[in-house]
Amino acid sequence: MTAFLLFISHAVLLLMLPDHSVAGNKELLVTTIKQDPYTMAKGSVLEGYCMDLLGELAKKLGFSYRVQLVKDAAYGRVDDAGHWNGMIGEVIRGEADLAVAPLTLTAARERVVGMTKPFMQTGISILLRRDGGVEDAALFHFLSPFSTDTWVGVVIAYLLTAACFCLVCRLSPHEWSQPESEENHFTLLHSLWYAAGALSLQGAGPHPRAVSARVLSATWWLFALVLLSCYFSNLSSSQPPDAAHLRIKGFEDLANQEVIEYGTLSGSSTLAFFKNSNNPAYRRIYEHMERRKSLVSSMDEGVQRAKEGNFAFIGESVSLDLAVARYCELVRAHEVIGMRGYSIVTPLGSPMLKNLSIAVLQLSEAGELAYLRSKWWASSCMAGGGRGSGGKGHGLRGIFLLLGVGLGVALLIALLELTARARRRAQEQRKSCCTVLSQELSQRLRGGGADNHEESAEKSKA
Ligand code: GLU
């Protein structure tokens, strides 16, 4: 009798304990869909966020499983006759015991299958090419080939070179041989004009004659040539002219324009969101996509079309963020709408549902889901890299350096020319070379010329 009572109490206890073995010893058939980085084929094995998640759940709940790819490559949409396709359809028809994929939790699906607590949150956003009009202002497009730093560098280089021209032409006796009696033609104004002429490949004479000034001219011409060729090559590859005036920041902007084509995944919950929405802009987006038949059949196709340009792909922000992290030319609009979550799908009324939900929450609380997210969303595109505005013009550092060296060499040659002349004059006048040199220098730097000469002549008369 005691033994019987003990057996009954054990049986009752076992029934009350949480069901850790969700499916007994039966191997579960799990359906999934190929989508980066959730499920990807690596040779003959499947890997990715969802595969790692499935592994963790199996470990926690103690079940074995076999994964198969969904036959029609669809997520799950109901047709007019009430038949579901995709992974949802497979679970409903009993062709799979579980669906582990980025499957959005929606009211329509919740009615026909069991859906766990979400393992990831997302919303809907827009993916398009960086130069597809998200940020650039068309009015100042002509400045876009170089970054602000480079433009500041060019202006400083121009001013410094003009000042250097002016100085060299004053110092060099071959350029200004008689400071006592003749005007200096290479004034600061003329130097600015001369350097600007070279920068726009339009010669603006008179040209300098001294070796020092010619060295400076040649360096400046080389600088101008390299700068202009970089400018034009960046300008032509920067953005398509028809998209230049567009600035798509969100769904309103998208709905109010006809230049950029847009679409989403066919049969997806994103499409259903726009179809069922009462918002006039979202309705217009849905009608446009239906009319233009601009739906894509896979996430990869949507990303590829966005990369090719003039196409905005509407999709779930977590997936779009991955595309942005991988392809530097892509950018995601800031606006995110229709917040939703991804869930694991079981047959309706399945005893597994509760334990799977608890396990998902435990993984989330233990930081496992965050770890998996960072593991599979690692960025290969450095922030602000690629052809982003921050990186533009760095290839010009060499030519800036060369110009700096050219300025220094030209000044040195001008000083040597002046010293040689001072030595000659010192011998003729039997004075020390230093005295003659300092006289020459002060005469040339004072801004003398004919006026000075007249002044000194008047003083000597007086
Ligand atoms: N996660 C979506 C679904 O379950 C597919 C992708 C999308 O809607 O953009 O249908």
Mean pLDDT: 83
Low-confidence stretches: 4-21, 133-137, 241-245, 382-391, 449-462
SS element count, helices: 17
Overall shape: elongated
Bound molecules: glutamic acid
Beta-strand segment tally:
11
Structural class: alpha/beta
Percent in strands: 5-15%
Radius of gyration: 38 Å
- Summarize the main sheet: 9 strands, mixed
Percent of residues in helices comes to 40-55%
N-end to C-end Cα span? 145 Å
Order of helices and strands: HEEEHEHEHEEHHHHEHHHEHEEHHHHH
Offer a concise description of the structure:
The protein has 17 helices and eleven strands.
Could you outline the blueprint of secondary structure elements for this entry?
Blueprint: H1 2-16, E1 28-32, E2 40-42, E3 45-47, H2 49-61, E4 65-69, H3 86-92, E5 98-104, H4 107-112, E6 113-115, E7 120-129, H5 148-171, H6 188-199, H7 211-236, H8 251-255, E8 261-263, H9 269-276, H10 280-292, H11 299-308, E9 311-316, H12 317-326, E10 330-332, E11 337-347, H13 352-365, H14 368-376, H15 397-429, H16 433-445, H17 450-461
Parallel strand pairs: 1-4, 1-5, 8-9
Antiparallel strand pairs: 2-3, 5-11, 6-11, 7-9, 7-10, 7-11
Helix pairs in contact: 2-13, 5-6, 5-7, 5-15, 7-15, 9-10, 15-16
The chain binds glutamic acid.
